[in-house]
Amino acid sequence: MTNNNNNNNSNSGSKNQLQEMVGSYFLELARGTSKMKEVNMEEDMGDEEAPTELNTINSSGGFLVVSTDKLSVKYTSVNLHGHDVGVVQASKPAPVKRLVYYFEIFVKDAGTKGQIAIGFTTDTFKMRRQPGWEAHSWGYHGDDGLLYRGQGKGEAFGPTYTTNDIVGAGINYASQEFFFTKNGAVVGTVYNEVKGSLFPTIAVHSQNEEVHVNFGQKPYAFDLEDFEKQERMKQQMTVEKISLLPNVSHGIVRSYLLHYGYEETLNSFDMASKTTVPPVYIAQENGFDEQDIMYALNERKTLRKLIKSGEIDAALGKLHEWYPQIVQDDKSATCFLLHCQKFIELVRVGALEEAVKYGRIELAKFFGLAGFEDFVQDCVALLAYEQPRESSVGYLLEESQREVVADAVNAMILSMNPNLKDSHGCLQSCLERLLRQLTACCLERRSLNGDQGEAFYLHRVLNSGKKGKC
Prior knowledge:
Elements: H1 2-30, H2 33-47, E1 54-59, E2 64-66, E3 72-75, E4 86-90, E5 100-109, E6 117-121, E7 137-141, E8 146-149, E9 155-156, E10 166-172, E11 177-182, E12 185-191, E13 199-204, E14 210-214, H3 224-240, H4 246-259, H5 263-275, H6 291-294, H7 297-308, H8 312-322, H9 324-327, H10 333-348, H11 352-363, H12 373-381, H13 399-415, H14 430-448, H15 458-468
Helix pairs in contact: 1-13, 4-5, 7-8, 7-13, 10-11, 10-13
């Protein structure tokens, strides 16, 4: 008898811990912390400064003159040997948190020998040498069309360039390559093995050579937007070449519909799967255990519909009837989210006096409680705005907020399953866990590339997919 009591107490304690974990997880989602982190990361990307002018301090100034706008250079000396190079870097390194970086030069005058070069160098580069002549530097040279990369000997690369030509240099962070262009067409590419900062660099080396630099202050001769589009298409095609058995992909989708209680959609999906040629059958050995997420499917469907339509009182009534243990603790995270959503729905329909009364009764009890107070303050702040949707707390009135509350209730019911095998499975579907793993892998890959390249944002990928099919 004692052992049975101990087991029951242990099971009860485990269930309580699981429900506390579920409540805390969705409370964090409701507070929007994950969303705000993503927004802040995107703002950080926007704050990354790109070069806008040449560096007049660190250059071989004895051999060239930089214009007052710091966007053009002219070789004014007579070169006697290889160290008489007029070389200048951009004032800032190329930004790295993007798909591609690019800049161009216009050769106004090729001078007596046309020994002009464009490329990239590091901050330790000797400012008396052509880009590509020293280690960790790359340069496409105009007089011979050769590419130099870290040594004095060039290699066959592209055509020469001279007066009135427009030449560009870029870094493709997706492929980890430099690329060079002439008059709007790609000349060639070369692998970039440097993971540190690289400075756009130009050099002039014979009398009267003059070039103007375009850091994006005016349109490029090269169609950079189309180049980026093509690069993204390459990445997409690489993904689409990966084959996936129909029963595996159907199993993933089916588990998602089951997890969130989309019963009608699930029935339609199953019907469609059977009418395909050949029919798709979901085998249990594919790793999808549906027992956990089949639990209380009809009840979860009903509650989701009520919450997503803003009928919070009706949802609370059903919970008291079907799962009283979920709402017996009126200060639990789940009850808190439901009460907050009720308050939000009253504000949504303009019932402000009723919202105030409701807040004084149901939300006031959460003031001063760690983890709740800041969200309560956001909810109450809705009353301060004539147009709350346009305010800083307008996110509370978005459909996604109802979705979070519906997901929280859905997860709490799944956690009540006495035969639950995967305690974390009630939080997210298999599909979402796969997407989280995809995000982690993409971030790790970027980290291995020295944090160079476009950051991975799942919502952006999904949205771009929607636009592509419109």
